[in-house]
Design brief:
Blueprint lengths: L2 H31 L5 E6 L10 H10 L14 H9 L4 E8 L4 E8 L2 E6 L3 E5 L4 E3 L10 E4 L3 H4 L2 H11 L1 H6 E6 L5 E5 L5 E5 L4 H19 L4 E5 L7 E4 L5 H8 L5 H5 L1
Parallel strand pairs: 1-3, 4-7, 7-8, 10-11
Antiparallel strand pairs: 2-3, 4-5, 5-6, 8-9, 9-10, 11-12
Length: 268
């Protein structure tokens, strides 16, 4: 076959393919746009854990605000409006919505992730982005609890850093069960093992304070026992002050008197 005919045939088939492509776009895409949505699929991020908001709740929210796509023609479904509306929900971090030619609307949900729970003047979570999020009616996240006289500036600032430190340190993550903020804004810690309340004081230099306690745990309590003391005070430089449960000295009485609004006052 002469080269000229080869070029003619190649050009002919190229034009034929392009023509079919244009024909398909003009006809089939138009037909798809007239398809009616018959199914709504809501998928949660697989790494998000248990859902704080359910598929049924999301569907009800869309229905209530006239955004439920089921029964609507595909071309009239505005996925951007659905995304923007769902992102306003305090439990949702990211929402992505898209529609398929077969009439299915898919919504992918990434929930906000609670880091710790605050129980004080109000009850709410602080998420991993240092933002407040409401408590879910469906699921209570297993996270550290901060209670007492807690302020928003504290839990989104120093307290967030403190909880992050505890989470990242296997030793302290296994030791501390609850964090309590007293009336004077000083911190008390409730350990998982033993009856003692740990007085941390302010959150300034908390790493060095906890290091003193860690040495006491390893070199002291492992030898003399974990239930010997009722109060462990880390506020003093280069020392840890402990008070026995049956200690009757004036020092013990002062400790109790100074902490009337505290966990210690209730336990002693």
């Amino acid at each position: 076959m002469k080269p000229v005919w080869k070029y003619i045939l190649i050009s002919f088939f190229t034009l034929l393919i392009l023509g079919y492509f244009v024909f398909s776009l003009k006809n089939f895409s138009g037909k798809n746009q007239e398809t009616v949505c018959g199914k709504l699929e809501i998928v949660f991020d697989e790494n998000a854990g248990k859902p704080l908001i359910t598929e049924q709740e999301i569907a009800k929210i869309l229905e209530k605000n006239n955004l439920n796509p089921i029964g609507k023609t595909i071309k009239y479904i505005q996925t951007e409006s659905i995304e923007d509306f769902l992102r306003k929900n305090p439990l949702i971090k990211v929402a992505e919505c898209y529609k398929t030619p077969s009439g299915i609307v898919n919504i992918k949900i990434l929930q906000r992730c609670p880091k710790f729970r605050v129980v004080g003047l109000g009850s709410y979570y602080i998420d991993t982005d240092r933002k407040l999020m409401p408590v879910s009616p469906n699921y209570a996240a297993y996270v550290p609890v901060v209670s007492g006289r807690v302020t928003v500036s504290m839990v989104t600032g120093q307290m967030f850093d403190f909880v992050s430190f505890m989470e990242e340190n296997p030793f302290w993550n296994a030791q501390i069960e609850q964090i309590y903020v007293r009336e004077d804004r000083k911190i008390e810690l409730v350990p998982r093992v033993g009856d003692a309340i740990i007085v941390l004081g302010t959150l300034d230099h908390f790493q060095s304070k906890l290091e003193k306690l860690r040495k006491l745990y390893i070199n002291g309590f492992n030898v003399i026992g974990w239930n010997k003391y009722k109060v462990i005070d880390l506020q003093y430089k280069d020392q840890v002050v402990c008070a026995k449960e049956d200690l009757k000295s004036s020092q013990a009485k002062v400790v109790i008197a100074e902490k009337k609004d505290s966990i210690i006052a209730r336990k002693l």
